Amino acid sequence: MAASADPLAEIRAGFFAECEDLLGRLDDSLADPSIALPGSEAIHAAFRAVHTIKGGAASLSYEALAETAHVFESELDRLRGADEAPDAATLGAMQAFADELAQAVERAKTAGPTGDAGGGEPDPAAPGNWRILFRPAAALFQSGNEALHLINALMDLGEASVSCDTGALPSLDMLDPQEGYLSWTVDLAGSVDESAIRETFEFVEDICDLHIGRLEEAPPSRPEVAGHGPDDASPKDPEPAARGATPERPTVRVDLDRFDRLLNLVGELAIAEAILARRLADAGLDRRSAAAAALEEVQTLGRDLQDSVLALRTQPVKPLFQRMARILREAAARAGKPARLCLEGEATEIDRSIAERLVEPLTHMIRNAVDHGLEEPPRRAAAGKPAEGRITLSAAHRSGRVIIELADDGGGIDRARVRATAVAKGLITSDTALTEAETDALLFRPGFSTARAVGALSGRGVGMDAVQTAVAALGGRLSLWSGPGRGTRITLSLPLTLAVMEAMLVRAGGHVFALPLAATLEAARLGAPDLDRFARGERLIRLRQRQTPLFDAAALLGLGRARPGAALAVILADEADRRLALIVDELTGQSQIVVKPLGAGLGRVPGAAAATILGDGTVALILDPGELIDLAAAGDRQAPPPERLAS
Amino acid sequence: MTGAQTMQTAALTETSTDYLGLSTGGEDFVLPLSAIREIRSFGRATPLPHRPAWVLGVVNLRGTILPVIDLGRRLGLAADDDAGTLGARPVIVVVEDQGRPLGIAVARVRDITRIADRALEPPPACAAGPGGTFLRALAVEAGTVLRVLDPARLAPGPEGNTT
Q1: Which residue of chain B is at minimal alpha-carbon distance from A509?
Q2: I want to staple A585 with a disulfide (CB 3.0 to 4.6 A). Which of A197, A496, A507, B118 is the partner?
Q3: A130-214 sits in which CATH class?
Q4: Interface pTM (ipTM) of the complex?
Q5: A596 vs B51: CB contact, 8 Å cut-off?
């Protein structure tokens, strides 16, 4: 069995990946409003999903999972056979079953197979399961043969279950020691050739009753298996897929590392193309020549290739959100606070690896919302709120970023309590003056927790600081809003993808920087009066009917300063529409760039989240507007001496 | 390596390790060869905002972004505003620590030396600054003392501003 460990591990991984899909489909079906109608297709779809999980679990010896799925499946089977539509209570029970199944999948994933002793994973679909009836005649014993040896030999062939029929055994006084009274039934599983069985009995064939029959049914103790059951007698048989209203498109699973290598190569190709185009231009290639047209063709194809590869990398947030719905039900049940999760923007596409790395922070956030956000039911009633807490999880694309928001309609942050806790923990002194925002920021300090009772869910101390760290590691930002009595809203702003972006390339202080195009509003030429005010140290300039902070891009980054006489400003906005104007030397063009992470060993680099490689092979930093605005605000507070730009 | 038993074992299984010699700021050091991935010539790095002067910036290493530090400034052999220690033809020694590559810019690399493992001694306590020491060990070889650098300690810390 050791030899088969590797291929099985792969099969198991595939099974769990499939479970993830099937659980999503199950949630879809149970959430489908039409499920409350008699004869709904949704119930059949749910049944198919559970049935498939059960089959896979049984064939991989995840007995506990198979059992959970079996119980659920039976319930669904009863429902789909019923004449009337399920009522709300039944649907609630189905939802609970679905959550339990999801947990059973998780448990099976961590615990490994729990198959019965022997650990064999028979493939029941393969031919070669046998039932052998063996009744030795007296002559068998008289000729010196031993039934035990024969049965042992059978057990060596495969996984055997042996039962002995003692029904023919007479009372002791009637027993003839020379006679054979016993018969055995041996069920043999696994791929065994009939000839091997026959060989075992070769020398005793005519001194015993031997019947070898193909075993069509799986042993009764074993849960039944998908795709098995040749006749229509079993009501558990899945509906043929053709009857399903939702055709399942075939998919391929690819290891993320392999995929990233492909993406990297596509990025390299784009850079190589840019270099080639430049070299050809330098060599004086006529732009109307056939060679130039061919080059353009290659570039178009390269762009298409990149788009296609990138599309593979994104997925809707829906599976992530569905997973969160399960977390919420679990958290609400344990905290004894009824709560409902409303999902918005589930179709929003997000980078696959970002989605994966959002599971933990979102889980924390949801548990926090239930534990600390929602009030106890009596307090909700007193405040005139419905008993059921409402938590909204939404996703949207904004300014070239993905915005994920989690809002609850709870009591909001109790800032007096936050403050008291912070004082008690020595984070601040009792006379520290804090704004509301600064008070809220205390929640993100490591080890901070205001839960009076240690919640079973949120635990103590692990919480918002971990969320903050995880989001920052993704190149994201987190902001928080809270209204007393009205609830709390946490907004995550994440990069659309970790892979490519449209960027405006600018030169400042002699260096080239990339600015995300989605955050670049426009470029403006500064007039002499504005430059004068800037030279006098004013940092707020009226641009496009709005007071906008104006900074020298290179100076802001601590990398030199703008060319004397530079009068060009790029106006940036972050996703919260905070603005910043940056003085740059020149705009050098607009281009699709491949986003490369800055080396992990560098720590956080203020102002830049990533880098890209330009057509000439050099590295340019990708500036993060939100971070630049923070930098500008921090720099402004320190009130630098007036700079003399117009020298 | 004090007991006779240990000495004997060491003698029986005499092991040694290869080291690459390098010079910067007029000083010589060695790095364990096993930590070195490649050596490249160093042109220009893209500077990073608000980093200490010893972080030279990042360069393109076949499509990945490689952070580069100036060893001389890192070790305090050269002042922050002195870029001269790297000389006319600096090279980058690319090391890898826990999967994180780091480029170490030096004036030049020298030859490869083999040092017996038992010739290594822990660095003296006085070699440690406030942030610990950059030395992994000292080795006495042919009458001179070789300083073995610890690549893991040269990288910027998680906040990027370890001194």
Answers
A1: B47
A2: A507
A3: alpha beta
A4: 0.80
A5: no
